[in-house]
């Protein structure tokens, strides 16, 4: 049987990072998402694709975001939204993220669906949920 045309093979979240270096440091070094691929282009365009386990987080600077929007849409349209990352220790990861510069919005709180979730304002303007599944 043939694979359907357009079958999704990867989810890639693209985030516009005004302070690209700070965002890369935070997500790579503090949160622990290793660089899977990285590229530099014309006019200072930078992109790093970070391994997020079952997905990737792509951090792009302004030049890269503008170039992609221009190619795909013809004008600037890229928005921001919340990112949720599963971690093994939500309390420890939250403390480390805050120590590294993230702003705590809500501390780790047990949810009705049995996870421990914390909400942060993280580098690159990302509203970030760090969550730990409580039932293995």
From TrEMBL:
Organism domain of life: Bacteria
Domain VOC: 9-133
Source organism of this protein record: Pedococcus dokdonensis
Short name of one Pfam family: Glyoxalase
Protein name, UniProt field: VOC domain-containing protein
